[in-house]
Amino acid sequence: MNGAQAMIKCLEEEGISLIFGIPGVAIAPFYEALYHTDKIQHILVRQEQNAGHAASGYARISRKTSVCVTSSGPGATNLITALATAYADSIPIVAITGQVDSSLLGRDVFQEADMRGATESFVKYSYLVRKADDIPRIMKEAFYVASTGRKGPVLIDIPCDVQREEMSVPFRYPEEVNMRSYKPNVKGNAQQLAKVVSAINHSKKPLICAGGGVILGNGEEDVREFCEKNGIPVVSTMMGIGVLPKAHPLYFGMLGNNGKPYANRAVASSDLLIIVGARIADRAVPRPENLEQQLKVIHIDIDSAEIGKNMGPTLPLVGDVKLIFRALIESEIHVDTREWVERLEEYKKSTVDRRRFSEEQVNPMTMVQTLSEKMDDDAIYIADVGQNQLWSADNYVMKHGRFLTTGGMGTMGYSIPAALGAKICEPDKQVVAVCGDGAFQMSMNELATAAVNHVQLKILVVKNGYLGLVREHQQKVYDGHYSAVRLYDYPHYDKIAEAYDMDYVECGSNEELPEALDRFLACEKACLMVCHVASSNVVI
Amino acid sequence: MKGIFSVLVENKDGVLSGISGLFARRGFNIDSLAVGETEKHDVSSMTIVSTGDQRTIDQIEKHLNKKLDVIKVRRLEETRSVLLEMLLIKVRYSLSNRASLIEICNVMGAKIVHLSATNMVIEFHAAPDTVEEFIELVRSFGILEIQRTGVIAMTKG
Q: What pTM, to 2 d.p., does this model score?
């Protein structure tokens, strides 16, 4: 068995049945071995970055580590943006990149790129494989590292000659990982836990701020059960959308610059903020130092380095969200929050949205609301980046599905490949990617991948002919000097849809909207919908 | 404040660059960094000295711990540790001041490892503060070159 065959065998041992990638000479032995297995399906994407994003979509929906593969040099460097995106959002991915022969390393030969060096700050861990015999151990470790503790991408860079090299020992996939330098703490310190319980019991106005870590740790149901049992209200970050359905009586929206004013008011008037699986970056809390002086903060996270990075907590608790909330549910907590929740309801009712949207063309807020109301209960909505992301996060009516977006890196073009991965993972679920016309043009090449593989993607383009969020920024900060943001009317979307055998729906007014969305959602084939939105519309 | 970290790491390629990259990327200072093998050939020890406020020093410790090739991080207190740094210093002298330079070396316990007609190379190892003092003592003679190893440290007891 050679190195490449061993890699395929390892993937099979990990239960990987589908991978995304693009071959090249430096990864050719791997693709040769792949040719001889019928257990692993390969999706050929059209640009390597999208192999990473598709793997991200697949991983988030399957809640398992997903795999992408590229060749060396430019194929591998194309992947870096996707790795950085996955790293910022803690998505478990194993990325396999081909490399030039070991004997040529460091000589700047054709298509050589130092991938370990280049991705040092964008991956959780990386390997340069030196001999075929190491492959089973490295693959086992890679999957373990990607999927445990704070999840994230792991890179395996493998020279071509190592893929061809015959193993000198019989193949054996290790059952256990033995890494003395990596022992993720999952079970929350009992003393700290007791302090958390006591802090909650002493609070009058506790509030949970749920981040993406709750979903990554599969802790939605546990957090929900805990807050329902104790009547503790919840706000979320953008990545935490979906921890509670929008209609839940204890849910008070997304916080932050682009969030609900009543969510921010809830944070400001609480006396105990319980942050769970969130990094409290600038978009969520612009001035954390003010907050930490005002109120008690409990910070629960799997990654101890996250605690105190942006905000000094009164009480840190490191561990797995599911285990910690199971323990909290079992704990004696008595806190009467009825008055507090009533107050939050009043905040919510008294908030008047003063934003005005152009009545010409489609109102983007109405669009997101109507679309998400009409979508299936368990549908998957993928928001790209830009104004469309903020309108989506602000107005999405979460039921029991998933809301995916890239909150950390904010990578334009994420939605289409991620939707591809999500839909391939769950072919029977409704998957809708919502993007602007800028982001659409960054990854529209993947429409071919969808067509070839009969993936029934639904893509809604919120079209205003601009890089809208930059335009909005230039309007506010640079006196309306619109510099290099105009996209004009290209491409002709109807022709794009036709070129890729997609159905096409176009909508230019609020009156047409409900019917147009019905047609869009009812399409059997992959469908492209364009909503014309006035460029004067802003987010805030 | 000063943070002294004794860090045990896997002795393999890329680890040093990973650790130094972490400091660069997150804007942490490195005052000194010394690396060498330990009693186990597959484990290296790094002594890293940094300065920053309490939050920064705490963050450094956490981020070091987060690195996968880091086996153990210990934060050392100056009073409870032995700190040692080695200095090689080339100092100019003349016939008239040579005796007083040699006298300083004798008093401080420094060793003259090479002597030429116009300068001497002095070896000195001591706690980092004493190394600083020694440099100040010989400064007026004319320092031609300085090499320092960075601090290495070990807990007492």
A: 0.94
